[in-house]
């Protein structure tokens, strides 16, 4: 019998909206510590897949297991202790400070932002330092830049301390330095046992940091496997069109656009 205690297994996940099929029989399997890069062009179904995996959308599937637990049998409290989620953006209606927003990541463990322990406060400070936003801890969250807000949401997900993290375009509002910083942090977390799924429009980041890749086109699986073996010029052409090449720079493989 297959051991599923340390795996995420998704089989034949499909989703339709008003009789229009958006996802068609998506299947993949991850083990603990995998970092999956989800890639595809705009409108390919990446965000719909993420929302389906979170339970925000009611998808159909043959099987969806999280560490031997059937997802459809989990309640919200159980899910919040298994999966932390970083959306593309967030606008909070109240005047919380950045510190308070990051502290909200601890709410599944103690039921609110009151009565937190010294360990909780230390965890918040460490997460903010990890993503480089400690200096903004007392600022009103709504007054931060888009990039600073996004780093705050990532810190909140880290503080939530779940075995699984799912991030939807987490670096889209960040400058190049912070994009690489976040991918390095995610890579380090995966090496320490977290299972991570990241949706990204930057194939180089997936190529460099992700252990596995799931490429989607028109709601269907185009390719799934180890990033180093699966991302190639044929796949890039299938997703984005022609003129994308893979070369080497300082012994590092890199995807680039050829103007010739």
UniProtKB/TrEMBL annotation:
Residues passing through the membrane, by range: none
Domain of life: Bacteria
Domain ABC transporter: 8-243
Keyword annotations from UniProtKB, A to Z: ATP-binding, Nucleotide-binding, Transport
InterPro entries named among the record's database cross-references: AAA+_ATPase, ABC_transporter-like_ATP-bd, Metal_Ion_Import_ABC, P-loop_NTPase
Pfam families tied to this protein: ABC_tran (PF00005)
Protein name per UniProt: ABC transporter ATP-binding protein
Keyword ATP-binding: yes
GO molecular function, one term: ATP binding
